[in-house]
Design goal:
The structure holds two protein chains of two kinds.
Chain A (H helix, E strand, L loop, with lengths): L3 E5 L2 E5 L5 H7 L23 E6 L2 E6 L10 E3 L3 H15 L6 H10 L18 H9 L5 E4 L6 E4 L1 H7 L5 H5 L4 H13 L11 H7 L2
Helix pairs in contact in A: 2-3
Chain B lengths: L6 H14 L6 E5 L2 H5 L2 H14 L7 E5 L11 E4 L3 E3 L7 H10 L8 E2 L6 E2 L6 H4 L17 H6 L4 H9 L2 H10 L12 H10 L6 E6 L8 H8 L1 H15 L3 E6 L4 H16 L15 E6 L9 H9 L22 E5 H13 L1 H5 L9 E8 L5 E6 L4 H8 L9 E6 L5 E4 L9 H7 L7 E6 L4 H15 L5 H18 L7 H15 L3 H6 L1 H9 L1 H13 L6
Parallel strand pairs in B: 1-2, 7-8, 7-10, 8-9, 11-15
Antiparallel strand pairs in B: 1-3, 3-4, 5-6, 11-12, 13-14, 13-15
Chain lengths: ~210, ~550
């Protein structure tokens, strides 16, 4: 029931009720940048990079496309001076933490972001929550979670769970845009359960060598 | 106690209560509001009790321990009836003299208000400058009510509005009356309560909830606590009327875990209302049933945000919900949930009892009724003030507040706590109006008004407020977590003389992006104080940066 037609960047795009603007755009081959989005996970709305301008009922506003539901007659602008500026500043803010993360470097180039705009605090994690949510929603293990709030927020592997679950999974390592998840796991192992991880195939040495 | 089965039963009970009470009988009301309590008003109340017992005056003098009277600056407050003689800064030692004077119909002059300039005495409540410029429709009953006694509330006309609604009005008529009154939400946004009610009422789900937001996390705001602690039945009555109009069977009163007296009063009020048949099953024999539960926050500022609050009631961590769907359509457990703040609910009974036309006769063009304001900062009289919407800030600050402390100049007026804004002192003739204050960049918010004198450092104010919010950000979304963090670092640098030339540019970008892109209201409005300061006090920031570079810090 493709009963909804919205307009994205001047192009009429079909959609079905319940879809988000991001889904409709992706289906139509229109690119919107994301960092915390993953098709297997519930929309999170954390990175805000997928922000777009929408005109609905005579009002223009900025919404994140990963959460905003499609509606008929909605007019969406995925690029504008304002949208680009928001994305640029968000990238600059994240680059204070992970200045060399490949995805950020690429985005910085596209949006003209200055990696040195804000004082560096290299925590390497940009708190997109992919690891945390993937572990909870897809793997249903909850081996990694968020601790603390505000700027003190960080991801943390829970040793009791991580010890038994992580080595044979490692799926979050590849999801992580900054490779921090892997580092955080290794650090947790080294500090909390050295030599005690459970693994079906103990080919650990090779993997360990690959960790910087 | 009587189980009331009809409107007539309640009228009869009220007549009985009033018949037992002699309005001419002397009485003592001791304020036990938060400020007076902190000044040990309990010792004053204890001294009155002992004095009455010592002389066997139980039959001649009533003693009431009440909620906040309002004049926090001069606590402990005591009001002596029958003609409302106000005593301030009362100590236990003053008690025998006040008792003697009250019984004789005289005044103990040592503790009445004395004009600081002329020395003239203001004895009665309607003569004391702090009170006489107010219109105390909501908080005015506080001195007359022991919050633990439902009969005190019934005696002043309590639950008459509920009776009227249930016995003479349909839910649609109640809704229409509230819409007509143009009651706007007192929690911060000023959104029309009637429209919100209507959205929840019209939502297809049958199960609906109503919620009292009594979280009051806004810094420098303390009136909701005074209202709910001092007169819990007024809020509960408003909630039941709202539930009737909306079609909700269950309500939640969400408040602070760290306010034991408030909790005690609300619990007692709910129990008593149920005992009397004013709450629970088949209220007043109308067939309408409604219950409400008390829920507590977990000590996090953002739990006052509506969607976070609802997550908290569900038993989840109080993180704001990112969805673009109104909680009035899909809130607690995805059911339509109408949330209003304490003061909004407290306005409902009088709108129903006295009518929308009466209500719209008070206030400004688009902001109707009165507004409770927590007045604090560098002002002579701090306390809780209630004035009609549209009242000039000059009246609030000078006539009621007694002006700036120590004869200093007024530098700025700050509204709305950590997410509010500051306007310069010369704008003192601005009016207390949702739209007018919003336009000026100092939205009323929940109503915390902070007076700032000429010595106030505006960089430090912004830094201080932001420091509070940074600690309260949940950290989920980038613009709030990182944006505020960077703003705070830059402001700290400026405040400590390490400001750089491009800092104002960076602040402008950060404030813009944080307010446009944040997930919830905390982030969206976190930079409002800073924005207002860059609007009105930019030169102070520039001067600070220049002074810093002159002192040796390199201006890049």
């Amino acid at each position: 029931m493709s009963d909804i037609v919205l307009n994205i960047d001047g192009k009429d795009v079909p959609a079905t009720a319940g879809m988000t603007v991001l889904q409709a755009a992706q289906q139509a081959g229109i690119h919107i940048p994301t960092l915390c989005h993953h098709e297997k996970l519930e929309a999170y709305g954390g990175c805000r990079l997928c922000i777009v301008g929408v005109e609905a009922r005579g009002k223009t506003s900025h919404v994140v496309s990963c959460l905003y539901p499609v509606e008929s007659g909605l007019v969406v602008h995925t690029r504008s001076e304002k949208v680009d500026k928001i994305r640029r500043v968000l990238i600059e803010e994240l680059m204070a933490h992970a200045p060399d993360a490949p995805e950020l470097v690429k985005l910085a180039y596209e949006y003209g972001a200055d990696r040195n705009r804000f004082e560096k605090e290299a925590s390497f994690c940009i708190l997109c929550g992919l690891c945390v949510r993937y572990c909870a929603e897809v793997k249903q293990k909850n081996a990694v979670g968020f601790i603390e709030n505000g700027p003190r927020r960080e991801i943390s592997f829970i040793p009791d769970v991580a010890k038994d679950q992580c080595w044979d999974c490692q799926e979050c390592f590849t999801l992580c845009p900054t490779s921090y998840a892997q580092a955080a796991y290794m650090l947790t192992e080294a500090l909390a359960f050295p030599g005690q991880r459970k693994a079906k195939s103990p080919t650990s040495e090779q993997v360990r060598v690959s960790v910087p | 106690m009587p189980l009331l089965k009809s409107a007539a039963d309640l009228d009869q009970l009220r007549s009985d209560i009033l018949a037992r009470r002699d309005p001419a009988r002397p009485s003592i009301a001791v304020c036990a509001g938060a400020a007076c309590d902190g000044l040990d008003s309990a010792a004053v109340a204890g001294a009155f009790k002992a004095e009455i017992a010592r002389h066997g005056l139980e039959a001649r003098l009533d003693l009431r321990v009440t909620g906040c009277h309002g004049y926090c600056e001069k606590g402990p407050n005591v009001v002596a009836g029958p003609d409302d003689v106000c005593y301030f800064e009362v100590t236990p030692e003053d008690v025998p003299a006040i008792v003697t004077a009250t019984l004789k119909g005289e005044v103990f002059e040592d503790r009445v208000y004395k004009d600081p300039r002329t020395g003239a005495l203001a004895v009665h409540m309607n003569e004391v400058p702090f009170y006489k410029h107010q219109t105390r429709l909501l908080i005015g009953d506080n001195p007359k009510i022991d919050p633990m006694k439902i009969e005190d509330y019934i005696a002043v006309g309590g639950y008459a509005a509920l009776t009227k609604a249930l016995s003479t009005m349909t839910p649609d008529q109640v809704l229409a009356e509230v819409k007509k009154a143009n009651l706007r939400g007192r929690g911060g946004g000023g959104f029309p309560a009637g429209s919100k009610w209507e959205t929840t009422r019209n939502a297809p789900e049958k199960t609906k909830y109503v919620i009292v937001n009594g979280h009051e996390g806004e810094s420098a705001a303390f009136m909701d606590r005074a209202m709910l602690t001092g007169n819990p039945h007024k809020v509960i009555e408003g909630l039941i009327i709202g539930a009737y109009a909306i079609g909700a069977q269950l309500g939640f009163i969400y408040t602070r875990h760290d306010a034991p007296r408030l909790v005690e009063h609300v619990k007692a009020a709910l129990a008593q209302a149920e005992e009397y048949g004013l709450f629970g099953d088949d209220i007043l024999g109308s067939g309408f049933s409604f219950r409400a539960e008390l829920h507590f926050d977990v000590g996090i500022f953002v739990s006052g945000e509506s969607s976070a609050l609802m997550r908290s009631i569900e038993g989840n961590p109080p993180e704001p919900r990112p969805k673009y769907i109104r909680t009035s359509v899909s809130g607690i457990w995805d059911k339509p949930s109408n949330l209003n703040n304490v003061e909004t609910w407290a306005n409902v009974p009088q709108i129903i009892a006295r009518g929308a036309d009466w209500f719209t006769g008070i206030g400004s063009d688009k902001s109707k009724g009165t507004k409770l304001v927590s007045l604090s900062g560098n002002v002579v009289n701090s306390g809780i003030v209630e004035v009609p919407m549209g009242t000039p800030l000059r009246t609030l600050i000078n006539d009621i507040g007694g002006g700036v402390r120590d004869g200093k100049g007024l530098k700025a007026i700050h509204f709305g706590g950590a997410m509010g804004g500051s306007i310069p002192g010369h704008m003192i003739d601005a009016r207390l109006d949702f739209d007018e204050m919003s336009k000026l960049g100092a939205p009323i918010g929940a109503g915390g008004l902070l007076v700032m004198d000429e010595d106030t450092d505006m960089v430090e104010v912004a830094r201080y407020l932001l420091d509070f919010l940074v600690k309260e950000s949940c950290g989920k979304c980038v613009p709030c977590r990182e944006g505020m963090h960077q703003m705070l670092k830059i402001l700290t640098n400026i405040a400590e003389g390490r400001g750089k030339k491009f800092d104002l540019d960076r602040l402008a970008d950060l404030t813009e992006v944080t307010s446009l892109a944040s997930l919830c209201a905390l982030g969206k409005t976190s930079s409002d104080p800073l924005k207002s300061m860059l609007r009105y006090f930019k030169d102070e920031y520039e001067a600070r940066i220049a002074a810093g570079s002159a002192a040796g810090s390199p201006a890049i």
